Amino acid sequence: MGLILSRSRTNASTKEAKQFKQNQEQNNKLAQARPADNNSSALADTFSKDTASGVPTKPSADAPVVCIDPGHPSETSEGAHAHGLSENQLNWQVALKLKSELEAMGIRCVMTKSSQNQTVTNRERAEVANHSHALVMVRLHCDVGSGSGYTWYYPDRSATKYGITGPPKEVQEKSHEAVQVINTAMKPILTGYLKNNPIKTDASTYVGGKQGGVLTGSIFARVPTALIEMCFINQKKDAQFINSPKGQELMAKALAEGIKKYVFTIH
Ligand SMILES: [Zn+2]
Question: Ligand 1 centre and the CA of 217: distance in Å?
Answer without folding.
Answer: 12
